[in-house]
Specification:
Helices cover 29% and strands 24% of the residues. The longest helix is centred in the middle third of the chain and has 29 residues. The protein is an alpha+beta fold and 191 residues long. The two termini are 65 Å apart. A four-stranded antiparallel beta sheet has the order 1-8-6-3, with no helix packed on it. It has a four-stranded antiparallel beta sheet with strand order 5-4-2-7, with no helix packed on it.
Amino acid sequence: EEGAGGAGPAAKGGVLHVNALVIRPQHLTDDIFTTSTLLPDEEVDLSFETSGKIVAINFREGTAVKKGDLLAKVNDQPLLAQLRRYEAQLKLAEDRVYRQSALLEKDAVSQEAYEQARTELATLNADIDIVKSNIALTELRAPFDGVIGLRNVSEGAYASPNVVVAKLAKIQPLKIDLFVPERYANQIKPG
């Protein structure tokens, strides 16, 4: 029996049980586990800038494409006919300016007539540039290298700027989207 102020079992010759661990240096890892999502470096919905009937689709779903590749085409026959008409008129307008220039040097024509011929030629060249830019709008080209996804239209369908033809994703490099608890934020470093 122990007295009220007496010593414990060790004082009476008893055994004191102690648990001990031997500490050895070793590598300590502080891993953080989280769920993440892989994202493409860039992704875009491909659509035409103009409206019209789709006459060609030049890609296979899930294949790699290069920047500038022609992916699809809208009917441009009326624009091509208009371009041929303007180009046929171009030679005549250039000849008219040349003749007016030669006559102006001999004072056989007024400066106004010469300027009018030059203006007609410049207007015709501007019309040709407009038609060529409208023809370019009928072509859907890849804006960057990537992998093209599922197509949402077929040849013969009517395309407009709000119709998505397909998605294009640049997958090299990939991005990782993840969330880390705030208490670990100061431990996150590049690499």
